[in-house]
Amino acid sequence: MAIDPIFTDAVFRRFIVTEWKEKFRSEIDQEGHAKNPNLKYELTTEEELSGILNLLIKVCKKLVAKGALTHEQSIKQLRKEWKEKADPISQFIRSCLVQDVNGITPKANSIRYL
Predict the structure, then answer these.
(1) With contact defined as beta carbons under 8 Å apart, do 74 and 80 qualify?
(2) Is the entire prediction scored with pTM above 0.85?
(3) How far apart are CA 1 and CA 12, in angstroms?
(4) CA 22, 27, 30 angle in degrees (round to 5)?
(5) Closest CA to 84 of 9, 13, 17, 8
(6) pLDDT tens, residue order, the chain (114 aa)
(7) Is the dihedral of CA 89, 91, 96, 99 positive or negative?
């Protein structure tokens, strides 16, 4: 069986799962927030680029001090976290649904989680 190169341990050893505080919108969302067509220009000002460089220098210093890319989590934990973040439907199924072959759930009860 061929192994998909994106799911090898080597790839997950290099992953850093990042959570974004902001959503990047393509249009206007349900809360009325619009996309920012100037975001590219706002993030590439001299001041912003300097801030990004300073953050990268901090990360680089930590990497040099450690001597390698290492994680607190195991490869198995990183893979699980990545899959959960990449597939919210599966995450919903695992966290909100209970398997019961004899059970019945009214549609109204299921919809409230959506």
Answers:
(1) no
(2) no
(3) 20
(4) 70
(5) 17
(6) 455 666 787 777 777 767 777 666 667 766 777 777 788 898 899 999 999 999 999 988 988 888 776 667 788 888 888 777 778 787 788 777 777 777 777 777 666 665
(7) positive
